[in-house]
Specification:
Number of helices: 15
CATH architecture of the largest domain: 2-Layer Sandwich
Largest sheet: 8 strands, mixed
CATH class of the largest domain: Alpha Beta
Number of domains: 2
Shape: globular
Helix content: 25-40%
Order of helices and strands: EEEEEHEEHHEHHHEEEHHHHHEHHHEH
């Protein structure tokens, strides 16, 4: 179907086995298209997408489709044939997880930016390589837009972290020489949540104070004071912090030495264990899908243990961050797949936080805040919000800002 002529931003969020994509109008920031291709490089590669006129779910594609083939499919089969808007695309925005210290903000992609993304593969081995695959594939498919590709870095949101927050307790030379420090992740999501919270609370962005909890397969907590992030749970890599789908989160570093010296595991095996076999998957001994443990919480010991440990770690971070903005806190915010949908996690967490002034409304919590202007707290409570994050919209916003 033909669409009215418009200037569109093509947003690509490239993951290891999935590729999220959107077409967003650069004038009014309305989404013309959203979708995801899942199981890339696997047997059951499939696509789901929706536009104004069409909604397709789990349409199976060529097995073992790679990132370049996926972007080509989106371009030719959806954008060109189904929507006929390929000539309306004026820029392309990409999510990149790690930008290190050099990338203090979003940037138009050139050779230097690509080299920097490659240089940081060691800090984000699960993300930066596939982020770059998305960039290279897009440049190949849209050669005329080569100079209109923008990288939006998760780590840019944390460039103003104070030194006492980002330095580790190891010799300072390792920071100066090798850049070993805390960088954070999920910055695009936390940035969007900060702006949306300010809008909901009717506060100036420079005076908003929140604790933002992005809870999904990857999970992190950030504390924001006067529109600037003071601390965040992820560190040098996205492995630090909360327990996640397959990531361990915080552990005693000596566990690594023990596994190497006593259990005789190789460094590669330990790295794989902590990144891909731990977290919810490791504790439940079943699946990394949190919904499975949540459903069995009241009658399965493994499921209860998994959820309780996840919530305990979450509460531990929220509590420590609370005292950084205690007298000025505007809201505690939940987002991400678990944060937005898990009534149980929010209930268990807020119950443990009640002594700090957080009180949950069971009715509003059960409705995920949808019928109460995002709020799930009682009137006497410090506001608690549930906000659906929109990383694609944040990426589009940054892309338009830079291209203009």
């Amino acid at each position: 179907m033909d669409y009215m002529s418009q200037k569109l931003v093509f947003v690509i969020n490239s993951g290891s086995s999935s590729l999220k994509f959107s077409l967003i109008d650069s004038k009014n920031y309305k989404k013309c298209l959203t979708g995801i291709i899942e199981c890339l490089n696997l047997l059951n590669t499939n696509v789901s997408w929706k536009s104004k006129d069409v909604c397709i779910k789990n349409f199976y594609l060529k097995s073992y489709m790679n990132h370049e083939e996926a972007i080509r499919f989106i371009l030719t089969e959806i954008i060109q044939k189904k929507m006929n808007v390929v000539n309306d695309i004026v820029s392309i925005g990409h999510r990149v997880v790690h930008g290190g210290e050099k990338m203090k903000s979003s940037a138009i992609i050139n050779k230097m930016i690509i080299d920097n993304i490659k240089e940081l593969f060691c800090f984000s081995p699960l993300h930066n390589p596939v982020n770059l695959l998305g960039i290279e594939s897009a440049i190949k498919q849209f050669p005329s837009l080569r100079r209109k590709n923008v990288a939006v870095f998760d780590t840019s949101f944390y460039q103003k972290l104070p030194e006492c927050t980002y330095l580790y307790g190891i010799p300072y030379i390792f920071y100066k020489k090798y850049g070993i420090r805390r960088y954070g992740a999920h910055g695009i999501s936390h940035s969007y949540i900060m702006k949306k919270s300010a809008e909901i609370m009717r506060k100036d962005l420079k005076s908003i104070n929140i604790i933002s909890c992005h809870l999904g397969n990857g999970a992190s907590v950030s504390v924001i004071k006067n529109g600037v992030c003071l601390d965040t749970s992820m560190g040098l890599t996205p492995l630090e912090g909360l327990i996640m789908g397959t990531r361990s989160g915080d552990i005693d570093p000596s566990i690594i030495f023990y596994l190497y010296e006593k259990v005789k595991m190789s460094i590669k095996e330990i790295k794989n264990l902590l990144n891909k076999k731990s977290g919810i998957l490791g504790l439940s001994e079943n699946t990394s899908d949190f919904r499975n443990s949540e459903k069995k919480y009241f009658f399965n010991k493994k499921a209860k243990r998994t959820v309780d440990i996840f919530v305990y770690r979450l509460v531990k971070y929220i509590s420590s961050y609370f005292f950084l903005i205690a007298k000025k806190i505007d809201a505690l915010v939940f987002t991400g797949g678990i944060g937005q949908n898990s009534v149980l996690v929010r209930e268990l967490a807020v119950l443990k936080l009640s002594s700090l002034g957080f009180k949950l409304s069971k009715k509003f919590n059960n409705e995920n805040g949808l019928k109460n202007n995002f709020r799930i707290s009682t009137e006497k409570s410090i506001p608690i919000l549930v906000i659906s994050t929109d990383e694609e919209l944040e990426i589009a916003n940054e892309t338009v800002r830079l291209i203009k």
